[in-house]
UniProtKB/TrEMBL annotation:
Species for this entry: Polarella glacialis
InterPro entries from the UniProt entry: Csn12-like (IPR045114), WH-like_DNA-bd_sf (IPR036388)
GO aspect biological process, one term: transcription elongation by RNA polymerase II
Domain of life: Eukaryota
Protein name per Swiss-Prot or TrEMBL: Uncharacterized protein
Keywords: Coiled coil
Any GO molecular function: double-stranded DNA binding
Length: 350
């Protein structure tokens, strides 16, 4: 029909004009035409989703290229955000066309991450959540796999950056489980966020999985966290800083230092408790000298006594340690019952 011919004409114009602002406008026009044609269909028209995914991705890719090659960084991508939001809202209003809205949603999420506007993702994902939680609403599990995996990856990434580790692990775990084994690049992108997520929840990856997916940079970090080796953690973080920044996970991994600190405290606690037991002072094993922790923190991270007290107080505050500090007696008093709760039970935003 005429609608299809218009789309073909715009795609052909985009091809002719290449990587230019005119080419970007032609790609946006093709997407608008396809969305209008999609909306005109009386049923769900799932056959139109793969072309919609393709047409939605092309303007984003070109806008990124144009912004990378000119001084006004972000200008073309910011303009594209407005165009995509218009299409998202049109599709989201029609219940049977919400799968199409998700295709546009994924490209918007990618743009927001690229532009450093991750906070804008909340509006989009709230709309998706509301649509999927209503009775008879959108069933995310029945989406075409390519669309569903992309959505869950981006949604999980947003959760992780927002500090919602539990939901992030759930979304990213689903994306990984449903991502084809042959899609190595996509699996690596998912694991880059999923591994730090699981480390924060106390789940350590198999080294072979990291090496197979090109994430050897996280192997040293993981080992340092497991053994409470704070000095090695800092060295690994510095060593792989550029790679983690490029991947967008540096700040997420940096926060795992608290888990390394907690495991350091646990090791010191175990040693002191064993010494007190050997001295027939088992009834005092939960009351330990603060000075020993000051030495351990100085050795591992060059911490002053005041910094050590602050770090211990923070670990207690977030639920990483059960107990309290006694300034008067210079003691760390641990709970007799489960002084080191599971990492998954800590304050979620820690």
């Amino acid at each position: 029909g005429a609608g299809a011919n218009d789309v073909v004409a715009d795609v052909a114009r985009a091809w002719r004009t290449g990587a230019t602002p005119e080419g970007l406008e032609a790609r946006c026009a093709a997407l608008r035409q396809w969305c209008d044609r999609y909306l005109a269909q009386k049923d769900a028209a799932r056959w139109m989703l793969p072309p919609l995914l393709w047409l939605a991705a092309r303007p984003r890719q070109l806008a990124g290229e144009l912004d990378a090659s000119c001084a006004g960084a972000g200008r073309h991508q910011e303009k594209l955000v407005e165009a995509l939001r218009e299409q998202f809202q049109k599709l989201q209003r029609e219940r049977e066309k919400r799968e199409g809205a998700l295709a546009v949603c994924c490209e918007l999420l990618r743009l927001y991450f690229k532009l450093g506007q991750a906070s804008q993702c909340t509006f989009l994902l709230s709309a998706v959540h509301q649509a999927s939680s209503k009775q008879g609403g959108l069933d995310l599990g029945s989406l075409p796999k390519a669309l569903a995996v992309t959505l869950y990856y981006l949604w999980g990434k947003h959760c992780v950056l927002d500090g919602n580790v539990v939901e992030g692990e759930e979304k990213l775990g689903w994306a990984l489980a449903n991502c084809p084994p042959a899609a190595s690049g996509n699996r690596r992108r998912i694991l880059a966020y999923l591994v730090p997520c699981r480390l924060r929840l106390g789940r350590f990856p198999v080294r072979g999985v990291l090496e197979k997916n090109g994430l050897s940079s996280l192997a040293g970090v993981s080992a340092a966290i497991a053994t409470g080796n704070v000095r090695r953690f800092s060295q690994e973080l510095e060593k792989h800083e550029g790679e983690l920044i490029d991947c967008g996970t540096y700040l997420v991994v940096e926060k795992l230092k608290l888990v390394a600190y907690r495991n350091l405290v646990r090791r010191v606690h175990g040693r002191l408790a064993a010494q007190l037991d050997a001295q027939n002072k088992a009834e005092h094993r939960h009351k330990q000298d603060l000075a020993v922790y000051e030495h351990a923190f100085l050795w591992q991270d060059d911490c002053s006594p005041d910094e050590t007290v602050c770090l211990l107080a923070h670990l207690i505050y977030i639920g990483a340690i059960r107990g309290y500090l006694s300034d008067e007696h210079r003691k760390v008093v641990f709970s007799k019952d489960s002084p080191f709760p599971p990492v998954s039970s800590w304050c979620p935003k820690a």
